[in-house]
Structures are given as structure tokens and as C-alpha cells.
Amino acid sequence: MGKETVDTQSSIDRLTNQIKKDQEKIQKANDNLRQAYDEMTDVENGIREACWTFRTEIPDDVKKVWTGTGRKDSFRDELLPRIAAIKPDDIQPDLRDIERRIAIVFDDNANTVPEIPTIQLSQLVDYEDEPILQKKIVGREDLPLGALIKKLENSDWVSQGIDYATEGDICPFCQQP
């Protein structure tokens, strides 16, 4: 029992000391983690409050249309990705212009513009003999477009296009059915 017991006791004492040192390291690491977590919470709260302060500066008309931002956390979560998407060379919007646009869009007294009726391709053939379509479109030669039209000899493109209009189901002018 002699030498082995002494060696074993020595190992136990050494390992016990190592355990104490490791437990102290763990405690310090936990303290650092808790402190870092507290600091992170303070920073997050500061960001949330800064975002909320910014919200109070937003005009009421803008707040009405910016839905889902009535709580501090949701407003922060909505705002931060938008801020991150801003590039240094982006032009800052004019807040008064945004207010003006919102007032126009959400004006209850605004009039709707009637829908523009679509024209059937078959109707184009009916208008083929109209005098306005017989007139050649000629640009001034001193303009780049006029020089191009003259070079291509393409001043009568409307009447040439009408010939194609009867051949297919796609308009030769706008390339739509």
C-alpha cells in the first residue's frame, strides 16, 4: 500500500487542483458571457429605442401606410434591413416629396382615370385608307432621327407595317397579340 497509495493521492491532489482551476476558468468564462450578453442586450435596446425615436419623426401619413410597425421590435426588424440595403451612392429621398406622393395616392377625393380601350388588329385594316396614315413621316434632316430615316429610306414605315398586320396574329408595331 505504500508507494502506490502516495502516487494515487498525489494524482488525486493534482487533479483536484486542476478541477478547481478549470472550474474557475469556467466561472470567469460564464461571467464574461453574461457580461457580453448584458452589453448586447443594452445595445439592442439602444437600437430599438433609436429606431422608435426615428418612427416618431415620420409623418403621420407615412405611418398610416407603413403597416406592421406599431411595436418597437417589429418596427426595428422592418427598418434595419431597409437601412442595410442603402448604398453610399444612393440618393436620399426628400421626405416632403414622399409625403406629397402619399397624399396623392391615398386621397379619398381622387378621380380614377378610365381605362384606355384596346384596339383590335382587325380594326387597323379598316383605317388603312385614312389620310393621316397615307402621310409620310419625315424628320428634319438636321436631327439624328431624320438622318437615320433618310438613310434607311424608311419614312413610310406605317403603310409598310399595315401589310404585315394582316399576315399574322402579332402586331408589327408593338409586337403584341
Structure description:
The protein is mostly helical and about 180 residues long. The chain is built from eight helices and no strands. Helix 1 crosses helix 3.
Uncertain parts:
none
How would the global form be characterised? elongated
DSSP helix count?
Answer: 8
Secondary-structure-based class equals: mainly alpha
- Largest beta-sheet characterization: none
- Helical content class: 55-70%
Order of secondary-structure elements:
HHHHHHHH
> How would you state the average pLDDT, rounded?
79
Strand content: under 5%
Q: How large, in whole angstroms, is the Cα Rg?
A: 38 Å
Number of E-state strands: 0
Termini, distance in Å?
Answer: 103 Å
What would you say about this model in short?
The protein is mainly α and 177 residues long.
